[in-house]
Write a structure and sequence with these properties.
Blueprint (H helix, E strand, L loop, with lengths): L6 E3 L17 E3 L5 E6 L10 H9 L3 E4 L9 H4 L4 H15 L5 E7 L1 H12 L4 E7 L18 H5 L1 H4 L2 E4 L9 H11 L10 H4 L3 E3 H17 L7 E6 L8 H9 L5 E6 L12 H24 L2
Parallel strand pairs: 3-4, 3-5, 5-6, 6-9, 9-10
Antiparallel strand pairs: 1-7, 2-4, 7-8
Helix pairs in contact: 1-11, 3-4, 4-9
């Protein structure tokens, strides 16, 4: 899940890992239609947040692979020192596992995962048939972002500062669905900084400032690559996204050079659209887009 800014100052000695930890791992389901979907979770998130889409596309005959990003599921003292190329490498390795065994490959990601999906499309334009960006996160400018967010910049660009700061996530946790939100709140409201017992299910309650800095660098890197992207691109975002406004979707839409591109807006969800009120609409829109992209790919190969 994405971050709600609330500063919590701790030192490394407070980050003793617990012995009772719960780790998630890469999810893979083999399909039978010759097509594959790579689903990439968000920063400090978990493959669990992609579970609905994983099951949906597998039932449709797709092979589905959902990698666990580097060091996710590990104690924060490990995760916080991870750099964005490590996250991208996790997504890239998932692609490499399936690239020779499937006719068509689609890639999608939530929040930061959407940015990694775009980088895959830029690096492998001949093998990726389409990319679906879900709540892409380039700017934290949603309605629940605090007015003082612009003053937090020094906390993650100054090395010695970002090493000691963490942000605690507060309601609504990117979720409009009240039942899901209650489950998340039960864990997040009581979780301590080094508590990762339920990370595999709900993601991390705390967000290291070091990772906010890595996201900042990733956004700068991706922005320079967007005009190179020509594969079909879909962007799905909630109109009332509490973390990142539809400005994020528009930013990507205006810069990619894809002939086929679209923005799909949702009106009854917040940031984590893969697990929120309209997750069925998200899945249906993605499926429609993948079918359209596969038809375009078949036409291109026929006339090559």
């Amino acid at each position: 899940m994405s971050v709600k800014f609330q500063i919590d100052f701790r030192t490394k000695k407070d980050l003793k890992p617990e012995t009772n930890t719960q780790h998630t791992e890469e999810v893979f389901f083999q399909g039978d239609n010759g097509q594959a979907v790579i689903l990439i979770h968000g920063l400090t998130g978990t493959p669990q947040e992609m579970k609905f889409l994983t099951n949906f596309f597998h039932r449709k005959g797709y092979s589905v692979i959902c990698p666990q990003l580097a060091n996710h599921g590990q104690p924060l003292e490990i995760l916080k020192d991870t750099q964005w190329p490590d996250f991208y490498q996790s997504a890239r390795q998932a692609f490499m596992k399936i690239k020779d065994s499937h006719n068509l490959i689609f890639v999608s990601g939530l929040s930061m995962g959407a940015l990694l999906a775009l980088l895959l499309a830029e690096e492998f334009p001949e093998r990726i048939s389409g990319v679906s960006c879900l709540s892409p996160t380039l700017f934290y400018d949603g309605w629940n972002s605090p007015w003082y967010r612009c003053f937090l910049y020094p906390l993650y660009v100054v090395p010695w500062l970002r090493s000691f700061f963490y942000f605690k996530e507060d309601p609504p946790y990117g979720v409009k669905n009240e039942a899901v939100r209650r489950l998340v709140h039960k864990y997040y409201s009581q979780a301590q900084l080094n508590d990762i017992k339920e990370v595999g299910r709900y993601g991390y309650p705390y967000f290291p400032a070091t990772l906010l800095y890595q996201l900042h660098i990733l956004v700068k890197h991706l922005t320079e690559k967007l005009e190179n992207i020509r594969v079909p691109v879909q962007i799905i975002q909630a109109k009332e996204d509490d973390m990142t406004s539809p400005r994020n979707a528009q930013f990507i839409y205006e810069r990619v050079k894809s002939k086929t591109k679209e923005i799909v807006l949702l009106y009854d969800s917040y940031h984590v659209i893969t697990a929120d009120q309209e997750r069925d609409k998200v899945a249906a829109a993605m499926e429609r887009f993948f079918i359209q992209a596969s038809n375009n790919t078949a036409f291109k190969h026929k006339n090559a």
